[in-house]
Amino acid sequence: MMSDYVIETSALSKTFGRKQALRDLTMSLPRGGVHAVIGSNGAGKSTLFRILLGILSPSSGSSRILGVESSQLTPEVRGRIGLVHEEHTLPAWMKVRDLVALNRRLYPQWDDDVHREVMGHFDVHGDQKISELSRGERAGTSLAMALAQGPELLILDEPTLGLDVVAKQAFLQSLLFVGGQEGRTIVYCSHQMDEIERVADNLVILERGEVACLAAPEDFCERVSYWVTEGLSPRVANGSIPGLLQAREIEGQRHLVVLDQGDDLGERLRGLGAVSVQRLPVGLDRAVNAYLTRGHHAPRR
């Protein structure tokens, strides 16, 4: 029976000596769409992926991918999972056309139309050796091959790291082409919020090995608001401002990013001494940055 979820974890924990990389992590990612997994360095993203793919064993808890226990993945199940990571490791000595021919024979679901569509975004020729390709061209070649294999689940781990603007744009255009295809799910790990904001349907924020937030990007941004005040004394205690994530002094103004507060916060700030209060739009980059770098006084949800 097919599971409704591509990834499921229950109380998943992993320790390395005295360091706890994952801490009772429980989540379920449904089939379809693009799920973005983000977090600071050391949040547990790489450890999570390695456990899901059966490369590492958990210290406790369990994980399932495509309905199968991660420790019991068969070659057939692995053939339904595509992976593109930041190194874009491909056999340097092979020509592109030979590598494509090899993959065509290995994967029964190979789709030449998808391969051509994705490769069309990159200036790569079949007679080129992999060693002759730029980083961006290797990224495009990796993505095209992963997608042409027809995976149910595609895991992208920092795939645009180190790419120039043109290569990154081509990569994202290719991703948008396949992201809406029925029956395919993409799990996208990146530190680039502009990419996440453009492609993600669902946002998973990992923090110190736990799921800190799971929501649509627009829903998360609605929870965060940005305020610019004048006349608010720096001596006003941070604890006096409900939901405070981040406070900065910039050219005599106090800039505040807060969580789960409505327009009535403006009146509270005036009551604390602000002579002017302005609420500004907040993008995903600012919202996530403030959330992940918040002080210990701020609320967690």
Topology, please?
Layout: E1 5-16, E2 19-30, E3 33-38, H1 45-52, E4 60-65, E5 68-69, H2 75-78, E6 81-85, H3 96-106, H4 112-119, H5 135-148, E7 153-157, H6 165-179, E8 185-189, H7 193-199, E9 202-207, E10 210-215, H8 217-223, E11 224-230, E12 244-250, E13 253-259, H9 265-271, E14 276-280, H10 284-292
Parallel strand pairs: 3-8, 3-9, 6-7, 7-8
Antiparallel strand pairs: 1-2, 1-4, 4-5, 9-10, 11-13, 11-14, 12-13
Helix pairs in contact: 4-5, 4-6, 5-6
Number of domain units:
2
> What is the helix tally?
10
CATH arch. level architecture of the largest domain: 3-Layer(aba) Sandwich
For CATH, the homologous superfamily of the largest domain is named as P-loop containing nucleotide triphosphate hydrolases
User: Main sheet?
Assistant: 6 strands, mixed
Report the C-alpha radius of gyration, rounded. 22 Å
Mean pLDDT reading: 89
Highest CATH level, the class of the largest domain? Alpha Beta
Strand segment count: 14
Sheet-strand content, in percent, reads 25-35%
End-to-end distance, in Å?
A: 34 Å
Tertiary shape: globular
CATH topology name of the largest domain: Rossmann fold
Residue stretches low in confidence (pLDDT < 50, at least 5 long) are: 296-301
Spatially, the strands of the biggest sheet line up as: 6-7-8-3-9-10
- SSE order: EEEHEEHEHHHEHEHEEHEEEHEH
